[in-house]
Amino acid sequence: MAKVSAVNRNAKRANMAQRDKAKRTALKNIIMDRSLPVEERFDASLKLAELPRNGSRVRVRLRCELSGRPRANYRKFKLSRVALRDLASAGQIPGMVKSSW
Predict the structure, then answer these.
(1) Residues 5 and 50 in one domain
(2) Domain containing residue 1
(3) N or C, which end of the chain has less CB nearby within 10 Å?
(4) What's the rounded Cα separation, in Å, for the pair 58 and 68?
(5) pLDDT value at position 8?
(6) What's residue 101's pLDDT?
(7) What's an example Gene Ontology biological process for this entry (predicted)?
(8) Could you read off the pLDDT of 40-61 as tens digits, one per residue?
(9) Both 93 and 81 in a single domain?
(10) Spatial separation of the C-alpha atoms in residues 21 and 6, rounded to whole Å
(11) Please, are residues 24 and 55 in contact by the beta-carbon 8 Å criterion?
């Protein structure tokens, strides 16, 4: 089980990223638009830098929904390999069977 503080910190980052998504996208579009004057683009880059770092989507870590484990996660299930194996062995995931040959 992961530390509760790490899971909460990651959830806070996810909320901030969702909240700031529109602002960041608008500022990035201004920065990338070559038809605008350089001063306007520079001001947009300064405003983007003033936004909180934790509001960026890349700061959010994929964690297991059950255990909070930060590594070895399957995106499709949002579960770690350990939790996925336990649920699959118990028959909780439809269509997934233990391999044998």
Answers:
(1) yes
(2) 1-61
(3) C
(4) 18
(5) 96
(6) 81
(7) translation
(8) 999 999 999 999 999 999 999 9
(9) yes
(10) 22
(11) yes
